[in-house]
Amino acid sequence: MRKLSRIAAVVGAGAAIALGNASSAQAASTWYAYAHTSSTAYGTFTDDGDAFRACDTKTDGLGVWLKVTATWYAGPNDVPFTGSFERYFTPGNGNCTEYHHGNLVEDRTVKLTVCLGNTVNGTTSRFDCGSTITAKS
Protein backbone atom coordinates (compact mmCIF):
# COMPACT_ATOMS: atom_id res chain seq x y z
CA MET A 1 0.00 0.00 0.00
CA ARG A 2 2.89 2.33 0.76
CA LYS A 3 4.25 1.80 -2.79
CA LEU A 4 0.89 2.82 -4.30
CA SER A 5 0.76 6.01 -2.25
CA ARG A 6 4.28 6.98 -3.45
CA ILE A 7 3.24 6.38 -7.07
CA ALA A 8 0.09 8.46 -6.57
CA ALA A 9 2.15 11.28 -5.04
CA VAL A 10 4.59 11.26 -7.99
CA VAL A 11 1.78 11.16 -10.56
CA GLY A 12 -0.10 13.93 -8.70
CA ALA A 13 3.03 16.13 -8.55
CA GLY A 14 3.63 15.58 -12.28
CA ALA A 15 0.06 16.57 -13.09
CA ALA A 16 0.37 19.71 -10.95
CA ILE A 17 3.55 20.72 -12.80
CA ALA A 18 1.92 20.06 -16.18
CA LEU A 19 -1.14 22.11 -15.22
CA GLY A 20 1.06 24.91 -13.91
CA ASN A 21 2.96 25.07 -17.21
CA ALA A 22 -0.22 24.98 -19.24
CA SER A 23 -1.75 27.88 -17.34
CA SER A 24 1.36 30.03 -17.64
CA ALA A 25 1.36 29.81 -21.46
CA GLN A 26 0.31 33.11 -22.99
CA ALA A 27 -2.25 33.08 -25.78
CA ALA A 28 -2.14 35.50 -28.68
CA SER A 29 -4.24 38.64 -28.29
CA THR A 30 -6.19 40.34 -31.06
CA TRP A 31 -7.43 43.93 -30.84
CA TYR A 32 -10.20 45.40 -33.00
CA ALA A 33 -10.71 49.02 -34.08
CA TYR A 34 -13.93 50.10 -35.78
CA ALA A 35 -15.08 53.06 -37.80
CA HIS A 36 -17.25 55.36 -35.66
CA THR A 37 -20.74 54.36 -36.79
CA SER A 38 -19.97 51.18 -38.70
CA SER A 39 -19.31 47.70 -37.38
CA THR A 40 -18.70 46.57 -40.96
CA ALA A 41 -15.42 48.50 -41.39
CA TYR A 42 -12.69 47.47 -38.98
CA GLY A 43 -9.01 46.71 -38.56
CA THR A 44 -7.26 44.12 -36.41
CA PHE A 45 -3.85 43.69 -34.81
CA THR A 46 -2.69 40.32 -33.47
CA ASP A 47 0.43 40.38 -31.31
CA ASP A 48 1.48 36.84 -32.27
CA GLY A 49 3.20 37.48 -35.60
CA ASP A 50 2.61 41.26 -35.49
CA ALA A 51 -0.23 40.87 -37.99
CA PHE A 52 -2.51 43.66 -39.23
CA ARG A 53 -5.46 43.55 -41.58
CA ALA A 54 -8.43 45.63 -42.68
CA CYS A 55 -11.95 44.35 -43.20
CA ASP A 56 -14.77 45.84 -45.24
CA THR A 57 -17.65 43.47 -44.74
CA LYS A 58 -20.33 45.54 -46.47
CA THR A 59 -20.59 46.08 -50.20
CA ASP A 60 -21.50 49.77 -50.10
CA GLY A 61 -18.98 51.44 -52.39
CA LEU A 62 -16.87 52.66 -49.46
CA GLY A 63 -13.43 51.45 -48.49
CA VAL A 64 -11.52 51.17 -45.22
CA TRP A 65 -8.74 53.53 -44.15
CA LEU A 66 -6.35 52.10 -41.56
CA LYS A 67 -3.67 54.00 -39.65
CA VAL A 68 -1.15 52.09 -37.53
CA THR A 69 1.34 53.75 -35.17
CA ALA A 70 4.01 51.45 -33.74
CA THR A 71 7.72 50.89 -33.11
CA TRP A 72 9.39 48.42 -35.43
CA TYR A 73 12.88 47.40 -36.41
CA ALA A 74 14.15 49.13 -39.55
CA GLY A 75 17.25 49.30 -41.67
CA PRO A 76 20.18 46.93 -42.02
CA ASN A 77 21.07 47.21 -38.30
CA ASP A 78 17.50 46.69 -37.03
CA VAL A 79 17.34 50.07 -35.32
CA PRO A 80 14.03 50.67 -33.47
CA PHE A 81 11.95 53.25 -35.35
CA THR A 82 8.66 54.74 -34.16
CA GLY A 83 6.29 56.01 -36.78
CA SER A 84 3.01 55.38 -38.48
CA PHE A 85 1.69 54.28 -41.79
CA GLU A 86 -1.68 54.79 -43.39
CA ARG A 87 -3.29 52.60 -45.96
CA TYR A 88 -6.54 52.90 -47.86
CA PHE A 89 -8.15 49.67 -48.99
CA THR A 90 -10.49 50.02 -51.92
CA PRO A 91 -14.11 49.08 -51.46
CA GLY A 92 -14.44 45.48 -50.43
CA ASN A 93 -16.96 42.92 -51.42
CA GLY A 94 -17.65 41.72 -47.91
CA ASN A 95 -14.20 40.41 -47.03
CA CYS A 96 -10.88 41.20 -45.35
CA THR A 97 -7.42 41.86 -46.75
CA GLU A 98 -4.57 39.41 -46.34
CA TYR A 99 -2.62 39.78 -43.11
CA HIS A 100 0.29 42.22 -43.28
CA HIS A 101 3.15 41.44 -40.88
CA GLY A 102 5.68 43.72 -39.24
CA ASN A 103 8.77 43.19 -37.14
CA LEU A 104 7.63 45.16 -34.10
CA VAL A 105 9.64 45.83 -30.97
CA GLU A 106 8.14 43.67 -28.21
CA ASP A 107 6.03 45.11 -25.39
CA ARG A 108 5.50 48.50 -27.02
CA THR A 109 2.32 50.45 -27.69
CA VAL A 110 0.55 49.87 -30.99
CA LYS A 111 -2.28 52.22 -32.01
CA LEU A 112 -4.95 51.57 -34.63
CA THR A 113 -7.45 53.99 -36.12
CA VAL A 114 -10.06 52.94 -38.66
CA CYS A 115 -12.19 55.18 -40.86
CA LEU A 116 -14.46 54.73 -43.81
CA GLY A 117 -12.95 56.08 -47.00
CA ASN A 118 -13.81 56.99 -50.54
CA THR A 119 -11.79 57.86 -53.63
CA VAL A 120 -13.15 60.46 -56.04
CA ASN A 121 -11.10 61.65 -59.03
CA GLY A 122 -7.93 60.10 -57.55
CA THR A 123 -8.28 61.78 -54.15
CA THR A 124 -8.99 59.61 -51.12
CA SER A 125 -10.95 61.13 -48.30
CA ARG A 126 -11.62 59.57 -44.91
CA PHE A 127 -14.54 60.10 -42.60
CA ASP A 128 -16.47 58.44 -39.79
CA CYS A 129 -13.25 57.66 -37.89
CA GLY A 130 -13.55 55.58 -34.76
CA SER A 131 -11.65 56.00 -31.53
CA THR A 132 -7.98 55.07 -31.66
CA ILE A 133 -7.41 51.83 -29.77
CA THR A 134 -4.18 50.96 -27.97
CA ALA A 135 -2.67 47.48 -27.98
CA LYS A 136 0.67 45.92 -26.97
CA SER A 137 3.13 44.26 -29.32
Average pLDDT confidence is 77
**Content-based structural category:** alpha+beta
Shape: globular
Number of strands: 10
- SSE succession: HEEEEEEEEEE
| Main sheet record | 5 strands, antiparallel
Give the DSSP E fraction (strand runs of 2 or more residues). Answer: over 45%
Written overview of the protein:
By secondary structure, the protein is of the alpha+beta class. The chain is built from one helix and ten strands, in the order H-E-E-E-E-E-E-E-E-E-E. Strands 1, 2, 3, 6 and 7 form a five-stranded antiparallel sheet that branches. A hairpin with a 4-residue loop joins strand 2 (38-46) and strand 3. It is globular. It starts with a helix and ends with a strand.
Could you list some keywords that capture this structure?
five-stranded antiparallel beta sheet; 17% helix; 1 helix; 50% strand; alpha+beta; single chain
Provide the fold topology.
Blueprint: H1 2-24, E1 30-35, E2 38-46, E3 51-56, E4 63-74, E5 79-89, E6 95-96, E7 100-101, E8 109-120, E9 123-127, E10 133-136
Antiparallel strand pairs: 1-2, 2-3, 3-6, 3-7, 4-5, 4-8, 8-9, 8-10
